[in-house]
Amino acid sequence: MAATPRFIDIHIVQPVPYANLNRDDTNSVKTVLYGDALRTRVSSQAWKRATRTHFQEVLGDRTLRTRRIGERVSETLRGRGWDQELAERAGAHVAAGSSVKWEVAKGPDKQPVKNKVLTNALIYLPENAIEALADIAEAHKDALTTDFTGGKGKKTESVLPKNQIDKIFRERNGIINLFGRMLAEVDDADVDGAVQVAHAFTTHVTEVELDYFSAVDDFTEAKNDETGSGHMGTAEFSASTFYRFATVDLKEVAKNLGDGCTLDLEAARELTGQFLLSFIESLPQAKKNSTAPHTLPHLVHVAVRSDRPLSFAAAFEEPVRAAANGGFVGRSVADVDAYANAANTLLGPERVLHAAHASLDFDKLQHLGKRHASFKALVYSALDVALAEVPQ
Question: According to the lineage, what is the superkingdom (predicted)?
Answer without folding.
Answer: Bacteria
